[in-house]
Design brief:
The complex is a heterodimer of chains A (about 120) and B (about 160).
Chain A: E1 2-6, H1 10-20, E2 27-31, H2 34-42, E3 50-53, H3 62-72, E4 77-82, H4 87-96, E5 100-103, H5 108-124
Parallel strand pairs in A: 1-2, 1-3, 3-4, 4-5
Helix pairs in contact in A: 1-5, 2-3
Chain B: H1 3-9, H2 18-32, E1 37-38, E2 42-44, E3 53-61, E4 63-71, H3 73-84, H4 93-114, E5 118-120, E6 124-127, E7 141-148, E8 151-161
Antiparallel strand pairs in B: 1-7, 2-7, 3-4, 3-5, 3-6, 4-8, 7-8
The chains are: A alpha/beta (about 120), B alpha+beta (about 160).
């Protein structure tokens, strides 16, 4: 599985990498904001199976990024991983095209379960 | 003195404080496995943060002001190591990044419980003793002293409902 981690915190991306290594055969790409993420996606024509997206980032936030990705790509699994915990924010992200939503703080196990659960749900659909 | 009583002695609304107490405990327990003891809160009169390193987060919208999470240097080093799962060289960009992310989670979780539509800024981190943070002059600053096995830090709240 090819995973793109988008978060302006390098430490947070490393935490996510360590947690998601539990999924098995995974490779990671990283971006520090939405603009960088779009460039990484453009440079990888094979695409990503999963993109984890932080909300609050400089240059381009996660909501804008998800909207831009979904304008051309309905397939890639997108999960918002953020401190934005209000119900309205969750709904906003899901309406923009996120497949699921993970609120920080989280344990590594909770992140892995969120990804596994989202994958299973999509496969069953 | 309870948090509510302490807040009542100043002019800050206790309902703006408790979400930060709860979010601080939750973030440190979840991300670092640390139990946080909350000490007696007080109104802060001087502009300098409590400790050496500060992560500053601005609030805008229906809640306005700033929140500063201020760490003793030794505390920050232990917490960043626990957070990152590895030793991070102090006074580097990765170190600032980790401190900022912890503060971001504390502020973000508190924002939900504040129950008002507000946005928080990307954190700004200052490393070094003796720095001064300029806060809104019309909003009192409440300091919540916190202690953990990793050491002391403080959450300094200068926010109000817009």
């Amino acid at each position: 599985m090819n995973i793109l981690l988008v978060d302006d915190s390098k430490v947070m991306r490393n935490i996510q990498k360590k947690a998601l290594a539990a999924l098995g055969d995974v490779t990671f790409a990283e971006a520090g904001d939405g603009v960088e993420a779009l460039a990484v996606i453009a440079q990888n024509p094979a695409g990503f199976s999963l993109v984890l997206v932080d909300w609050n980032m400089p240059n381009m936030n996660g909501l804008e990024l998800i909207t831009k990705i979904r304008a051309t790509d309905k397939k890639t699994l997108l999960i918002m991983v953020t401190t934005e915990a209000e119900k309205d924010r969750v709904l906003e992200a899901l309406r923009a095209g996120a497949n699921n939503y993970m609120i920080k703080p989280f344990t590594p196990d909770a992140l892995v379960e969120k990804v596994r659960g989202t994958l299973a749900k999509l496969r069953a659909a | 003195m309870s948090l509510t009583a302490a807040a009542a002695k100043g002019t800050i609304d206790a309902r703006l404080i408790m979400p930060f107490v709860n979010s601080t405990r939750n973030v440190l327990q979840t991300m670092l496995g640390l139990v946080t003891t909350i000490d007696r809160p007080r109104i802060k009169a001087v502009p300098a943060p409590e400790y050496d390193y500060s992560a500053i987060i601005g609030f805008s919208g229906k809640i306005v002001g700033v929140v500063v999470v201020s760490f003793r240097r030794e505390t920050a080093i232990k917490m960043v190591t626990a957070f990152a799962g590895e030793v991070v060289e102090p006074d580097t960009s990765d170190f600032s990044d980790a401190i900022g992310e912890l503060a971001n989670m504390i502020a973000g979780a508190a924002k939900k419980d504040l129950g008002a539509v507000a946005s928080i800024s990307v954190p700004t981190v200052i490393l070094g003793k003796g720095h001064i943070v300029t806060r809104p002059s019309d909003i009192p600053c409440m300091v919540i002293p916190c202690s953990t096995e990793a050491g002391e830090f403080a959450v300094e709240i200068s926010i109000k409902q817009a």
